[in-house]
Amino acid sequence: RDGEIQEVKGFGAKTEANILDGIEFAREATGRELLGRARPVADDLLAYLGDYDAVGRVEPAGSMRRWRETVGDIDVLAESADAEAVIDRFLAWDLVGDTIEAGEQKASVRVNGMRVDLRVVEPSEYGAALQYFTGSKDHNVHLRNIAIDRGLKMNEYGMFDISDVDDPDDGPRAGTRVAGDTEASMYAALDLPLVPPELREDTGEIEHAADGDLPDLLAEGDLRGDLHTHTDWSDGDNSIAEMVAAAEERGYDYHAVTDHATGPGMVGGVGVEDDDLLDQIDEVRAVAEDADIAVFTGVEANIDAEGGISVADDVLDQLDVVVASPHSALDQDRETATERLVTAMEHPAVNVLGHPTGRLINQRPGLPLDYERLAEAAVENGVALELNASPYRLDLNGEALKIAVEAGATVAIDTDAHRPAELDHARYGVHTARRGWVETADVLNARSVEELSDFLA
């Protein structure tokens, strides 16, 4: 930071800045695991403990329950009157690599290099503990200040009326318990509705809750199709028919085939040439004739450094869905990158702006963007902004999505699936969208086939 790098031959101020940015990015990523890697481990534990008679309610807590894109560790909270038996059950879990520590009510183990912490609490305190350990810290501090103003004490053990207590600090359970068995009771004691975990970041959710206008958030069952998927025509593992069948199995109403086109950012022969895209249209239509759902032709076209689209206009005009994505020149500055994507959205054939920043979580930060300008351009040009649900991307993130929907932009939640199992990554997209205050009406692929077709026309 003292300018010493610039003194090395061949290194200038921009190079120095890029190196420093990279160091900061690596520092922030250290010790954080991808949600998509940690969540399946948590789900296995939830199922394992859920089958045990001594366990009542059991849920993840911490940043995982708020569906942050990375987690420091896996926190799980279980309800039981027999904590010792539950701890023993936890330590016998077949995924445990080694035990870090074990006590009467909590224990920690390591699974696949990740720390998993279990805490067991009494039924009467489960709701209070779940609320407390879910966080965020800022959200909880805000709530506790409201409680204090009302003569209440709020902590992991419950909500207590301390108006008649001589010494409120005389133990964590001092006072008369007024709530604690459920999370809803904790919020109700403050005259608030239950705030969804994804919103608990102290970014206005408490004020909205007090006013009775929390958003009607998108739910996992609301998606009706996927508009960004790949097949073995480019870098996917499966045929068009196999991917369509997988979409049918998941109860979708429609499915779009959007293989990579050739162009900037495509290496190793990945990408379909324009002439081959025309041949693919015929195969997609043939598969559609035998399918029980609507199947759309499409492409994931590449956006060059100036905002140009890598597929010829006469080919784009024959496709149902055109996803345009940046795969190269991801080191541009904010103004250049934003105008580049705006230019791409101004192309009349583009329907969806794919993974707009191009980031890979814990690997590269992607493009810095002016999200207000991006959302404005998306609305003006009738283009949906993608929330790429791949757990490696989650792009756009919740903060950017909140800006987008406030500006009236439409969001497409797509998995970018390269094989059938990856269609299930939609859950990460849904919960990331919820972090962005996204409602069902904001989402393109939560609409009917007819409504979707109208948008694409």
Query: By helix and strand content, what is the structural category?
Result: alpha/beta
Radius of gyration (CA) equals: 25 Å
Average pLDDT, rounded to a whole number, is 95
Strand content: 15-25%
Count of DSSP-assigned helices: 16
The structural domain count equals 4
Strand tally: 18
Low-confidence stretches: 23-28
Helix share of residues?
Answer: 25-40%
| End-to-end gap | 52 Å
Under CATH, the homologous superfamily of the largest domain reads: Metal-dependent hydrolases
* Main beta-sheet strand count, sense and barrel state: 5 strands, mixed
Remind me, CATH topology of the largest domain? TIM Barrel
Which geometry do the CA atoms define?
Answer: elongated
Name the CATH class of the largest domain.
Alpha Beta
CATH architecture of the largest domain: Alpha-Beta Barrel
What is the spatial order of strands in the main beta sheet? Answer: 2-4-7-6-5
Quick recap:
This protein has 457 residues and is of the alpha/beta class. The protein contains 16 helices and 18 strands. 35% of the residues lie in helices and 16% in strands.
What does this structure look like?
It is a single chain. By secondary structure, this protein is α/β, with parallel strands linked by helices. The protein folds into 4 domains: 1-30; 34-121, 2-Layer Sandwich (Beta Polymerase, domain 2), CATH 3.30.460; 125-211, DNA polymerase, thumb domain (Beta Polymerase, domain 3); 220-456, TIM Barrel. 35% of the residues lie in helices and 16% in strands. It is built from 16 helices and 18 strands. The chain has helices spanning 13-29, 35-50, 62-65, 83-91, 126-134, 137-149, 183-188, 205-211, 240-249, 274-290, 313-316, 334-345, 371-381, 398-406, 426-435, 449-456; strands at 33-34, 58-60, 70-71, 74-79, 98-102, 106-111, 114-121, 152-155, 158-161, 176-179, 225-226, 254-256, 294-296, 298-303, 321-326, 352-353, 384-388, 411-414. It has a 5-stranded mixed β-sheet with strand order 2-4-7-6-5, with helices on both faces. A 5-stranded parallel β-sheet has the order 14-15-16-17-18. β5 and β6 form a beta hairpin. α12 runs parallel beside α13 (371-381) and α14 packs across α15 (426-435). The termini are far apart. The model is unreliable at 23-28 (pLDDT under 50).
